[in-house]
Amino acid sequence: SKFNKWKQNAITVAGGNGDGQKLNQLNYPQGTFIDKNKNIFIADSSNHRIVEWKYNAKEGQIIAGGNGYGNQMDQLFSPLDVIVDEQNHSIIIIDFGNRRVIQWLNQTQQILIHNIYCWGLAMDKHGFLYVSDREKNKVRRWKMGEYNNEGIIVAGGNGQGNQFDQLHSPDFIFVDDDQSVYVSDRQNHRIMKWGKDAKEGTIVAGGNGEGRSLNQLSYPQGVIVDNLGQIYVADSMNDRIMRWCEGKDEGGIVVGGNGEGNQLNQLHHPFGLSFDGERNLYVADLRNHRIQKFEIIL
């Protein structure tokens, strides 16, 4: 069918045991990445670690950090997002508190990008790396393996603001197969889409001020796009996940939207979003310290 639907009661697939640093706990999970075997990689920000929860596991394993916060080679400081390059089995991490993007390969850490107030991370099918810069209100792209430069600006970069060529505190990002960049433009309460080589973006969700109507967003976080071009947004302060079709004036609630809470049909400040290969929807439920899996209804 054109519109997928998801079960409204989620399954908790990671965390959900209160906030803490045990292996079955999370502490403000932010970005997530699901690999092709449905293993879940989580930026467990307040535990300063990246954890991997294997498919159906009851606890996670630490794959980076977990040695307290700091800037030593075995430490992280508030990691916000993570992607796995399944080609070379490396893990790329937004090490927010240390203002850097780092790569872990076989327990060895390498700093890819220095001195960047970064938040979101994406990789396209050609292996280019995209990073959002909240301080400079832009998204930059680097060629894999070539990080000793400023990167190329692919969205924003025209100062802080709400014009079509501007962003205000961009956080999570998504890149599609055409190298269009979708930016969660947080302080503008909108999602922007910048086509390849575009000089300005278009509003594809929100953009009608902060609020909870179906044409509004409130501090959007995670953004992902499906193969039909439908845009899914973690509408964080409204505790719901929205779906927008490009060109439409309003979105629809996919899951959540049942008030702030910890029931299985509720969210409390949703952050990162991911799909697995079957289009099950995973939500990093920040203030509930858990990852919620909403199963697709086939």
Automatic annotation (TrEMBL):
Cited CDD domains: NHL
GO molecular function, one term: zinc ion binding
NHL repeat intervals: 211-241
One Gene Ontology term from the biological process aspect of the record: protein polyubiquitination
Keywords: Repeat
Superkingdom assignment: Eukaryota
One Pfam family, short name: NHL
PANTHER family named in the record: E3 UBIQUITIN-PROTEIN LIGASE NHLRC1-RELATED, PROTEIN LIN-41
Record-given protein name: Uncharacterized protein
Source organism of the structure: Adineta steineri
